[in-house]
Amino acid sequence: MSVSKDERRDTWTVQCWYRDWRGERHKKTRRGFATKSAAKKWEQSFLARCEGTPSMTLSEFFGLYEEDVRPRVKQSTWDTKEHMVRTKILPYLGSKPLNEITSADVIRWQNELTALRTSTGERYRATYLHTVSNQLSALLNHAVLHYNLPSNPARKVPKMGSKDAGEMSVWTKEQYLRFSRAVMDKPESWMAFELLYWTGIREGELLALTPEDFDLEGGTLSVTKTYHSRRRQDVVTPPKTQKANRRIVMPSFLVEEVRDHLALPGVASPGKRVFRMTKSLLYHEMDRGSRIAGVPRIRVHDLRHSHVSLLIEMGYSPLAIAERMGHETTEVTLHYAHLFPNKQEEMARGLDAEGRCPR
């Protein structure tokens, strides 16, 4: 290791040896530092980063975390994770060495985030704050498992926010029909909401649909991909989970609506997205239609919940609903248990009848 002065340029240069994660030895040279102390500081930071020691700052460690984790997750998943870390964690804790972050630091960070307001002046949702807490814990757990951090200080502190979003927001069929009539003046919006409500697909799955995904003779819709926008570029990837790859049978009235929509000029271009709107426009249309129809504003994703609610009301089982939604049966039971009829009294009456039989 050495820090030397470049007399000709009046700058400082660092030369040091390090080992990569394979254990192979390399030489690193970095020039152009204005001062000797700046060169030494960079050298210490670089070696700590290479060796994965817990004395590196959280910001420096996030570079290692990205190298380890990013190749293993979907791009959209990484984008969400990275945005949370860079905007909600690193501005507060990024300059602290990993091995100096305490549970008290985590509490102060939670208090600051809880007091934050969105651009519209509202507090962040409890479920969002809970997810941000999970991201910090994931970072520190990774350091514990792979980079010799003795313990995760976030585990000593209750997570902020709440995993439970509270009472689920859904529309009844009557509310949806009022909304549907309100957006009928814009055919693309109307057709998009018809598919979201009557099939329960996710908004990303809707926006990725191409004409080839519709089998109008068989009356089915194939979900094989999802859409999101990344840095103003359209990105289409495989669905959220393997289970999300599915074929949905559409009601006959919806098949005819899709047939008419695909027949409109410029809609059914082979290989092109049927709905070329953005998620932002979809949210705007949700606002507009709700206001005109006089129904409570719910999220676009809540149309999926509304579809499940309708199927439960019609008497379908968790297994049948899970297959249509691309869920595991346990997910349906867990998330929608409060919507299923309570069978406890009926079970008790049946057991009572069995118990009264001659024995």
How would you describe this structure to a colleague?
This protein has 359 residues and is mainly alpha-helical. Helix content is 49%, strand content 12%. The chain has 14 helices and eight strands. Strands 1-2-3 form a three-stranded antiparallel sheet, with helices on one face. It has a three-stranded antiparallel sheet with strand order 4-5-8. Strands 6-7 form a two-stranded antiparallel sheet. A hairpin with a 4-residue loop joins strand 1 and strand 2. Helix 7 crosses helix 11 and helix 12 packs across helix 13.
Task: Indicate the topology.
Layout: E1 2-6, E2 11-19, E3 25-33, H1 36-51, H2 58-69, H3 75-93, H4 103-115, H5 126-146, H6 173-182, H7 187-199, H8 203-207, E4 214-215, E5 220-223, E6 226-230, E7 233-237, E8 246-249, H9 252-262, H10 279-293, H11 302-313, H12 318-325, H13 329-336, H14 344-356
Antiparallel strand pairs: 1-2, 2-3, 4-5, 5-8, 6-7
Helix pairs in contact: 6-10, 7-9, 7-11, 12-13
Structure in a nutshell:
With 359 residues, the protein is mainly alpha-helical. It has helices spanning 36-51, 58-69, 75-93, 103-115, 126-146, 173-182, 187-199, 203-207, 252-262, 279-293, 302-313, 318-325, 329-336, 344-356; strands at 2-6, 11-19, 25-33, 214-215, 220-223, 226-230, 233-237, 246-249. The radius of gyration is 27 Å and the shape is globular.
